[in-house]
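Hi V.,

You were right to ask for the full record rather than a summary. Here it is.
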Amino acid sequence: MRKLFLFFIPLTMMFAACTERSENPFFADYNTPFDVPPFDRIDDEHFLPAIEEGIRQHQAEIDAIVNNPEAPDFENTIVAYDQAGGMLRRVTPVFGGLRGAETNPRLQEIAREATPMLSAHSNAIRMNQELFARIQAVHEQRHEMDLDLEQLRVVEMYYRDFERGGAALPEDKREKLAELNARMSMVSLQLGENQLAETNAFQLKLENEEDLAGLPASVRAAAAEAAEKAGVDALGIVTLHNPSWIPFLRFSERRDLREKVFTGYFMRGDNDNENDNKDLFAELMQLRQEMSRLLGYNNYAEFFQAIQMAENPQNVYDFLYQIWEPSLELAKQERDQMQAIIGREGGDYDLAPWDWWYYAEILRKEQYDLDDAELKPYFAIENVREGNFMLANKLFGLTFEERPEVPVYHEEVEAFEVFDRDGSHLGILFIDPHPRPGKRGGAWCGTYRTGAYENGEKIYPIVTIVMNFSRPSGGQPALLTWDETTTYFHEFGHALHNFFADGRYRRTSRSVPRDFVELPSQILENFAAEPELLDEYALHFETGEPMPEELRQKMRNAEFFNQGFINTEYIAAAILDMDWHTAEHGDEIDVRAFENESLRNMGLIEEIKPRYRTTYFGHIFGTGYAAGYYVYRWAGVLDADAFMAFKESDDLFNQELAERFRKYILAENALRDGMDAYIEFRGQEPEIEHFLERSGLR
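Predicted structure:
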């Protein structure tokens, strides 16, 4: 009887495993419109088994490449490697996308379990000596293989990836690098989780009419609805989500409350509590320094910038300080103007960082007779979305159709099918507009499936743009600020890049330097205020009337307003990022002291804080923008110059230029390096003067 019982144990386990797989959407065809992830059927518990199976399958595919008895060639090594990992590509974008846009404690637990597994798997592949030997063999023979330009580039980029991943190091150093990579992945994960926890932890209760002094009706309504949603007994609450804290600082007459909100914002991760990020960030700097030196670089900035357009840290510093000096001078003039207002109103205090937004609003009203209450009714979120769609149609002939039958991960998410000029399917676009406790801050564009080719068949992308924009309140639709409006255009530009990228190989399709990648997004911001487009989408949410010329003229007059502050706070953060990643770090790092010294050395005035302090500088917690926060202004030079081509043509929607931009900047990334692609489009290298003039620095 005991033998019979033991016989049934493995059968029961096999049945349970089969049942688990049959109920897990990642193990079967989705059977959804456009094969989008079946968000309505995906449960948190589905991720870990799917990731584990994805790792197993990917490793089996790598083993097949390594054990192939035939001599390495482009097809059996490079293409085989490029196509491997299909199961992981199926699950990890969904997992990562939901962790950013709709996380919860269970997903965070799973991430802490899955991250070391994925890091170990990545290390095992990138340091696989047999695999590297095959890739190296193809690389050495590439010019004798009759490869075309795209094939040559994919060989060269994979070889470079393996070199930069440590495959060429001796065994003891490879083992050390694997340890560093594993630890860095966990530190980065924890830094991000702490930042989200700190953001969600802060609430300022507005408990009486005095607390509401100066707040417009729309801000009061939003604060009241936030309190009701949070179950807080108060007239309203202020949180650290941008649509809450920014308007409060701009309009609140309560200086003491402005200080509390601003302090809550800029002290995130630096409160000596369970979510403190100082020690973690210090460790991350030490890990990156050690990793870079193992790979033959003096510091992480050298490692990162070696494959960017900037090429090296000195070029980045030279570029940043070229903008820093006129920006800081302009910011000092703005400060003096605001201090004069304080004196005029009888204030006996110096302008502080929590005062800047408030007095900037007063100054804008005085100088340009312009305030948000006039502008926001013309930027209802649906109209801004349609403005983006109009621009894509005017430039590239795209059309968009809402698809309510497509499953989404949250009720606020909208899904659209995207059609090319000829009416053919181009992809699916998700739009996720508003803040939630489970969504990290900021705005970004990502993919749940990247565009690619498999066995010669085009796989169309599923793209998502995620924002944290103002919610509907007070019985009105979501009315966006001008900054939110341009951010919408920015993220939509990234989406277009994903739709248009058309390389045959995953490694090189849409593969551009980090200091090039913001060009496709930032150029669209330039179009947003042009009358030819503004007249069509900036319609009053109640009357449907276009923005009157008088108000448009006020916007144009205020184009350079507060640019000293905007550029100074940004460049300060970019220099701080560079200082962290070029410094010689010892065993002990005092994060506060290092940051203060960096800001003091660059000459930042006390009235302005950097856009991001170290402990909530989410861009540099991961590897994407570490030593690379400068890229937005670097790409700003590119987008200002590129937009000037459209302006100089006397046709804002010039079809020939639009097609050249699509071809050379957006579609054919697999064929050229960043500057070569830009010159193909523009016919010359970019000129910085257009950027400086646009920023009010000339």
